[in-house]
Amino acid sequence: MIHFILSLRWVTLVAALGAALGAMLMFFEGCLKLAYALKMVVQPSADTETLVIATVMQAMDAFLFGLVLIVFAYAITFGFAFRLPSGLRTKAPLWMRVEGLGEIKITLIQVVLVYLVVDFVTAVVELETRITWEMLVKPAAIVLIAGALRLLGSALPDDPPDSSE
Asked: Tens digit of pLDDT for each residue in 26-84?
């Protein structure tokens, strides 16, 4: 029975493959948005000035999310399915060393926050109108989610103290 349960870890490779494919899609979408922004710069019209800014911001958001998906794919593959030797693990960049599922969740919440901020700023740039109170619902949600993330981060244990302390 234990052998069967331990063999289920290979199912996590499906999630890792999905994250890697999603990363490639996000990079492709980011490239398409940058190409569209370049087209607006090369062939400008009266209404494309602010659209270029918004399109570039959306492209950077897509690239950021693609990068996070790569980190997720790496963390799932080498955190759940395979165990890397410690020598190889230390050679990986610090930003790719994920210590557990909790860290993956926090990273995902941070990416959602960045996406919401970019979405709000893009909407403000595209509309070029005065902000009404209804439009302030999204920034309020961003502040509440960021506050919850801050509280969650303060509830997690810090690094263990050195033995010299």
From this structure: 999 999 999 999 998 888 776 666 688 888 888 988 898 898 888 888 888 877 777 77
**Which long-range contacts does 5-14 make (Cβ < 8 Å, 24+ apart)?**
9/80, 9/81, 10/81, 12/76, 12/77, 12/80, 12/81, 13/76, 13/77, 13/81
Please give the Cα distance from 143 to 147 (Å, whole number).
Answer: 6
Residues in the chain: 165
Report pTM. Answer: 0.70
d(CA 152, CA 139): 20
**Rounded-to-integer distance, Cα 56 and Cα 32, Å:** 10
Give dist(CA 59, CA 28) in Å, integer: 10
